[in-house]
Amino acid sequence: RTIALSPEGDLLYVCNYKSGNLGIVDTQLNRQIQQIKTRTHPIGVTVSPDGRYIWVSSYNTSVIQVFERIND
Predict the structure, then answer these.
(1) What are 24-63's pLDDT values in tens digits?
(2) Confidence of residue 1 (pLDDT cuts 50, 70, 90)
(3) C-alpha–C-alpha distance, residues 70 and 59, integer Å
(4) Spatial contact of 32 and 23, defined as CB atoms under 8 Å apart
(5) The pTM is what?
(6) What's the per-residue H, E or C state across the chain?
(7) 13 - beta bridge partners?
(8) Which end of the chain is more exposed for a tag (fewer CB within 10 A), N or C?
(9) Residue 61: strand pairing partners
(10) Is 36 within 8 Å of 27 (Cβ atoms)?
């Protein structure tokens, strides 16, 4: 439903409304590398300027979840 690119451009975060998860796409591999379960119907995603935090808002629950990016 909504997408956000990390500041480095290496990851694309995708709200999957019907699936109820946040997809993470590796832009170098051009494929999804992870899914994170969210509250019902995620509709918005944004990334902090330093790329450390990802905020996801959900439609039915009026909740904002905060995820922290762990660098390898």
Answers:
(1) 999 999 999 999 999 889 999 999 999 999 999 998 777 8
(2) confident
(3) 26
(4) yes
(5) 0.90
(6) CCEEECCCCCEEEEEECCCCEEEEEECCCCEEEEEEECCCCEEEEEECCCCCEEEEEECCCCCEEEEECCCC
(7) 4, 24
(8) C
(9) none
(10) no
